Automatic annotation (TrEMBL):
This is LemA family protein. Keywords: Membrane, Transmembrane, Transmembrane helix. Gene3D superfamilies: LemA-like domain. The chain crosses the membrane at residues 6-31. The keyword Flavoprotein does not apply. It comes from Candidatus Caccopulliclostridium gallistercoris. Belongs to the LemA family. The lineage of its organism: Bacteria, Bacillati, Bacillota, Clostridia, Candidatus Caccopulliclostridium. Its main location: membrane. One of its GO terms (cellular component) is membrane. It is found in: Membrane. It is a single-pass membrane protein.
Amino acid sequence: MLGFISTGAIVGIVIAAVVVLLVVIIVAWIISTYNAFIRLRNNVEEGFSTMDVYMKKRYDLIPNLVETVKGYAKHEEETLSKVIQARNMAMNSATAEEQMKNDNILTGTLKSLFAVSEAYPELQANQNFLDLQNQLKTLETEIANSRKYYNGVVKVYENKREVFPSNLIAKWFKFEEKPFYEVDNEEERKNVKVQF
């Protein structure tokens, strides 16, 4: 039966097989790359969600802290109001970018709250204040660790999104850029001065 197939037909079958194989490889690569983007995007969302949980715990702790300080530092109403206002802005943020910006503002107002508290020795000796301060310190460590994780998964996602040839899939399926969590406050970027 092979004797009846011409050389041209065999070449045509081989070319068709190669084309089909190339199409299968390309489709498999597209599916694999798309699925990799889905996994990475889910990791980014999970990282932000984890960070958000710790931030919400901090938001819940702040009113108790402000009330404790208010009992001792009655003349510091402006600072206390700024802390509560920054907390409310951070809690009511509509987007991830807005929440990151407002969280940086909140961090700055918390520093001013603790600076004020140092002027009141009775407050520094209050066990409730010390407990709240320790809880906040623990939460800040957890938030910092979750920010590191979030930024790490964003980096992996962004690398995949920007590197050729996977950037073609990112454009075709509209995988959008994800923001890194960055410190906005210039004071946070400065070197710490150590004096003895």
